[in-house]
């Protein structure tokens, strides 16, 4: 198991972890479906499709509608043209800002590793005034690999100063993709239980779960400490 000497690099997922962004993703999906005369999908349905990035999102939408598979490229392009500005319905989960502030003040290098494409990921972080807190933002299109491949998480940690030969740090996320990514990377994983999961937490790799960001700084210290022991 990796060890984590303080300060411990902390890498965060974005959609369903720091941000409740499903309402904007839902509205943007339905705006694209409208151009195709396809009836809208429910928020719950679209939320259940989030986590693997935009290609997987649209593959699932195509399966759920009468759209032809060969339309995938055009649908993704039409979605991406709208996605950069899709922030009006997105909210930070309660206590995210305060929690990130405490962790940054304690000297933990902070990063983002998301399957959301880099452009919209940076745009929404800028919208909430958060971008300067993060030493690195790796998006779903930053590397050839996406989560659950460990490469984006390893790249995030390396950018935060972790030795690539011995990656150290903690990943914080919400989904199956994140749990598998952390397991593949051999890193502690703290799972936010109010995000966009389709699987019981007990069936996912995790080190601890939390439902309120007010509890995260304590959990981080506990796990950084455990990893040191
Ligand atoms: O947008 C997605 O599908 C996933 O994004 P996330 O990796 O930040 O959860
Ligand atoms: Mg997520």
UniProtKB/TrEMBL annotation:
The keyword Protease does not apply. The gene is gph. Pathway: Organic acid metabolism; glycolate biosynthesis; glycolate from 2-phosphoglycolate: step 1/1. InterPro entries: HAD-like_hydrolase_sf, HAD-like_sf, HAD-SF_hydro_IA, HAD_2, HAD_sf, PGP-like_dom2, PGPase_prok. Belongs to the HAD-like hydrolase superfamily. CbbY/CbbZ/Gph/YieH family. The active site is at 13 (nucleophile). This is Phosphoglycolate phosphatase. Keywords: Carbohydrate metabolism, Hydrolase, Magnesium, Metal-binding. It is an enzyme of class 3 (hydrolase). It comes from the Bacteria. It catalyses: 2-phosphoglycolate + H2O = glycolate + phosphate. Transmembrane segments: none annotated. Gene3D superfamilies: HAD superfamily/HAD-like, Putative phosphatase, domain 2. GO terms for molecular function: phosphoglycolate phosphatase activity. Specifically catalyzes the dephosphorylation of 2-phosphoglycolate. Is involved in the dissimilation of the intracellular 2-phosphoglycolate formed during the DNA repair of 3'-phosphoglycolate ends, a major class of DNA lesions induced by oxidative stress.
């Amino acid at each position: 198991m990796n060890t984590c000497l303080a300060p411990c690099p902390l890498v965060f997922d974005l959609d369903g972890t720091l941000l409740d962004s499903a309402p904007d993703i839902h509205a943007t999906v339905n705006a694209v479906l409208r151009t195709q005369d396809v009836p809208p999908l429910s928020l719950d349905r679209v939320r259940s499709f989030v986590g693997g990035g935009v290609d997987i999102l649209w593959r699932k939408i195509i399966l759920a509608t009468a759209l032809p598979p060969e339309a995938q490229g055009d649908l993704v392009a039409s979605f991406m043209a709208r996605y950069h500005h899709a922030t009006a319905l997105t909210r930070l989960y309660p206590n995210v800002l305060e929690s990130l502030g405490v962790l940054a003040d304690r000297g933990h290098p902070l990063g983002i590793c998301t399957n959301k494409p880099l452009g919209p990921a940076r745009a929404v972080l800028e919208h909430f005034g958060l971008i300067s807190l993060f030493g690195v933002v790796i998006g779903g299109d930053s590397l050839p690999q996406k989560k659950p491949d460990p490469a984006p998480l390893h790249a995030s940690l390396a950018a935060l100063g972790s030795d690539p030969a011995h990656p150290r740090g903690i990943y914080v996320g919400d989904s199956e993709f994140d749990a598998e990514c952390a397991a593949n990377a051999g890193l502690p994983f703290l799972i936010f239980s109010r995000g966009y999961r389709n699987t019981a937490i007990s069936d996912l790799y995790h080190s601890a779960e939390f439902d309120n960001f007010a509890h995260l700084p304590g959990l981080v210290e506990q796990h950084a400490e455990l990893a040191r022991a």
